[in-house]
Structures are given as structure tokens and as C-alpha cells.
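Class prep. Protein, please:
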Amino acid sequence: MSRVKAALLAGAAMALCGVAPGAMAQEAITLKVGSVLPAKHYISVQLVDRFIADLEQRSNGAFRFESYPAGQLGKDVPATMSSGLADLGVVITGHYAAKFPLTSVGELPEGAGNACEGSAKMWTLTRPGGLLSALEFEPKGLRVLNANMLAPYVLFTRDKKVESLADVSGLKIWSSGPAAEKAIAEIGGVGIKVASTELYDSATRGTVDGAVFPYSGLAQYDLQPILKYAVDGVNFGSGVFFLTISEQTWNRLTEDQRAMMADAALSAQHAFCQWVEDGDKALRAETAAREGYTVTALEGAAKDEFVGRLRQSAENWARAMDGAGQPGSDVLKAYREAAAGN
């Protein structure tokens, strides 16, 4: 039998088994994935684990992964990839504000209506060739594989029902990041900085009058019995994070491996944002139906006043970045104009 005929027959046999000939021939590659999040955190389970399982299946085992959650490879995830200690990582850019100041544009209020819209807009800016990729990821030797946004943040209060901007004046409000802190100040609140582990006690004692986070934050911080008012209809910002790979590792991959990885990463992004949206809608309905809880949907002039102030806080962020020698206005403009569905 000729070599050509034998090769064709071998290829046909593999096709009948449902295995692509190229996948059988590829040498397995093992990649290390680093994250500061615990293994059971919903981002680890719903995004990272989903991505890994999908890519292992797509490649018929040519990709293998070793996962290192909870900062096992180091708390500075970008640095672990730059040094070669990790190949891939979950980069929560808000944790490294000095390294990714412009990427905090995704945390600003009134930026996106929901998780999928925000994820798509951030992907436009951070994917290879995007503005933020060029400004903040590529110089660090990182390639963004997918971009992810959490559900829009909501204002929750303890004793006071907020129906207008004036109702926020003087309230002591906790938030998880600097972008939300600036938004709180813009609407007349007083930002309170306490560790998230102390938030329950602070809210119970009245040291904190309210907090800004998604509906899931009520359960996350065990605050269902305490924060009984929610303000709906405006967006107080959100959190963003990225699945990234070091360029050094990316360059080691074949074209087929790169294509498989890119497809699996985008598939994970789309599935994760939909999971976030579905969960947020369910939690909002559950909160509104809970006895003793009030969800106020802002409308008309009251909503317009809130939106105007919150958008102004984004403009202030851009000016501050410009003043620090960073192209904040260009980034904010690009983010607002980015496609919301890709």
C-alpha cells in the first residue's frame, strides 16, 4: 500500500471516530492558570472552569490545564504571567489600578445597561488591536482572551428610601472601588472605606447608611435583613475583569491552537454574561417581592437628575486622567461609542 493511500485511510478512520487528524497529531500542552479568586467563586466556576472544559474538549485533550486559585502563584496575577510563572490568568484590573488606570473606564457609572452589553464594549477596547489593548495590556506582554462585566451596581440603603437626588445628601455609602466612590461623591453621598469583611457590622451599627453593589451583593455580604431599600433605574457602575494569556505563551501555540483557544474564550464570555444577567434579574425580582423590602424605580425628572450627575462623574474621571498625562477623554469616548453586541 502506498504511503499516500495509507495516510488517507488513517485520516478516514479518525474521521469516523469523530476525531480530527490534526488534533491527534498535536502534542499535548499543559498551561498554568492563575487567579486570586477561590476555586468555588462563581467567576472561577462559571467562566474559568467552563473555558477550560470547553477547550479541552475542542482539542481532544491537546490542551491540559493546571489551575492555581486563591493567589497560589502570587497575588499580582499580571506579574505572574509576565515572569512566566503562569501562562493564563484572571486579571481583575481594579485590583491593580496603578497598572491599568484607563481600563477602569468599564467601572464608571452609566456605562452599559447590562453585563452582556458592557462585556461586549470592553472586548472591543481590550481585544488585540483595541485601544486599551495597545495602551495597557500589550506593553505588559498580555493578550486579552475575553472581557467580562458584572451586573450594574445598585444603591441600597438601610433606613432611608431614596426617591430623588436630594435624599442621598450626607448618606454614608460603602463601595468596592474608586470609580464608585467618585460617583457617590458626585451625587452628594459620603464614601465610606471599610473592609468588605466589616461591612455587615458597619451596616448593623449604622456606621454605614448604604452600599453600592449588584443585587447579588445582598447575599454575598449577608445584608438581606439590613439594607431594605434599593434604587433601580440608574447605573452606579460595575466591575470588570479579563481572562488573559501571556504573549510568550501565545507565541508558542500553533495557529490551530490559537483559533481554538480564542473561540472557547469568546464562548465563555458570552455564556458568563448571560448567566450574570439571568441571575441579576431573578435576584431583583426576589428582592422586590421580599416582605419589608422596597425597590424604587426612578423615572422622569428624578431619573434624569441622577443620570446627569453620574455621567458627570465619568467626565470628571476622564479629565483627571487627561491631567495625569493619560488619554482619558479618548478612552471614554471610545467606550461610549463601542459596539454593544459583538
Summary: Residues 130 and 151 are 23 Å apart (CA to CA). The longest helix spans residues 255-289. The chain is about 45% helix and 15% strand. The longest strand covers residues 142-149.
